[in-house]
Amino acid sequence: MHAAWWLGRLFLRLSRSAGSARLTQGPGHRGLSSHRRDPELSSFVARTNTCGELRSSHLGQEVTLCGWIQYRRQNMFLVLRDFHGLVQVVIPQDESAEAVKKILCDAPVESVVQVCGTVISRPPGQENPKMPTGEIEIKVKKAEILNSCKRLPFEIKDFVKKTEAIRLQYRYLDLRSFQMQHNLRVRSQMVMKMREYLCNLHGFVDIETPTLFKRTPGGAKEFVVPSREPGKFYSLPQSPQQFKQLLMVGGLDRYFQVARCYRDEGSRPDRQPEFTQIDIEMSFVDQIGIQSLIEGLLQYSWPTDKDPVVVPFPSMTFAEAIASYGTDKPDTRFGMKIVDISDVFRNTKIEFLQEALSKPQGSVKAINIPKGIKYLKRKDIESIRKFATDHFNQEVLPVFLKANRNWNSPVAKIIVEEQSQGLSRLMETQEEDVVLLTAGEHNTAEREPEHHSSTFSARGQIQNFMLESLIL
């Protein structure tokens, strides 16, 4: 009987939700109806409301709240916290409520409690405009400790600074912070919106593919899972590449999944062993179609409290990326493109530049660091030069455009004296800028990255190393 009642309630909720989420279609655009109901955050649980939703419109209502004790003040008030916000609770002081007072006064901070009481207005002048619930408070009638808290290694307050190491050690406590709660909920909302866009608006099918698979040579190393049979094992998939191709052959021409991927690349600093990706495959599509799909997907699912996503996205060819940034995954936020300044030094008397330009694919290229004198110290310059020498056997020459800068080497001084106008014209430099110059031979930009000479790829990696130094 009880189960039948719950099932009836569940089907009623589902039917209401389905009715409120009907698709609407307008001229040139399809979207979800804006008349969707707000989520019922207190359904199926012991509370009647969340701590953060109570307002003056709830005055006089009897409520049951569950949450963590954020802090207590003079054994007269405490602030209760849950994922939705904060609310002030009045600790009763009369003798008839001595048991309730003892529970709330003796409970350590961060204990989980349940309180039942009435929503009342705060006394005049005691409102807190900084709190969404600052106009009201809860007059407690009953209280219960659900879980008493022991001494914690740090306070659960956003203004309390914690090291990354201690946050990772006590991850279950760090998850209570506002920022971590916000991050996880934003991710959940984005994934849900992505599913809506792909499934409801464009007819994609969400399909889970196996996690245990055979080894697929090539690319990254794989994690191995032993089996019961001696000498046989499974591999965790780097991505669902083979599975989605099989789905295309099988006639499922629009597939996606929120896929977990595993790659054993512990030696690479920009990788992690497992990550999640939105994996998409389509049949009968071209490059423009894929680009438009991804732009629409991100624009539709982007958080509303962030700056809107502007489409179409900026794009560049592989050859442009290699020529301007030296890598096929450039960081374009800072500019500082690689500029070919070979023509400036065609008639130079500087020996190492002459030698580089005499080769068939020889060139002189440079990066301009705006106001580099202000941001770069001598140790930063030496770190960049050492990185280039150690990793690529490539010399990097810093050129300070202020002729009286005592960091300039004799060669750099000659460059400033002879070619300052040419450098300024090509690189749009100012007096406080610093130019990092290198010379060597490279292959054509149309070839794959792994076939580039060390000189050419060095420029991109030196640029990335330099950007990391500036950011840090």
Description:
With 472 residues, this protein is α+β, with helices and mostly antiparallel strands. The protein folds into three domains: 56-147, OB fold (Dihydrolipoamide Acetyltransferase, E2P) (Beta Barrel); 183-301, Bira Bifunctional Protein, Domain 2 (BirA Bifunctional Protein, domain 2, 2-Layer Sandwich); 319-471, Gyrase A, domain 2, CATH 3.30.1360. It is built from 13 helices and 16 strands. It has helices spanning 2-20, 98-106, 164-169, 171-174, 178-201, 241-249, 287-301, 318-325, 351-357, 372-375, 378-392, 410-427, 454-471, and strands at 23-26, 29-32, 62-73, 77-82, 85-90, 112-121, 136-147, 205-206, 224-226, 233-235, 254-262, 274-282, 338-340, 362-369, 397-400, 434-441. It has a five-stranded mixed β-barrel. A four-stranded antiparallel beta sheet has the order 13-14-16-15, sandwiched between helices. Strand 3 and strand 4 (77-82) form a beta hairpin. Helix 5 crosses helix 7 and helix 11 runs antiparallel to helix 13 (454-471). The chain is extended. The termini are far apart. Pfam families: tRNA-synt_2, tRNA_anti-codon. Residues 1-20 form the signal peptide. This is Lysine--tRNA ligase. InterPro entries: Aa-tRNA-synt_II (IPR004364), aa-tRNA-synth_II (IPR006195), aa-tRNA-synth_II/BPL/LPL (IPR045864), Asp-tRNA-ligase_1 (IPR004524), Asp-tRNA-ligase_1_N (IPR047089), GAD-like_sf (IPR004115), Lys-tRNA-synth_II_C (IPR018149), NA-bd_OB-fold (IPR012340). Keywords: Aminoacyl-tRNA synthetase, ATP-binding, Ligase, Nucleotide-binding, Protein biosynthesis, Signal.
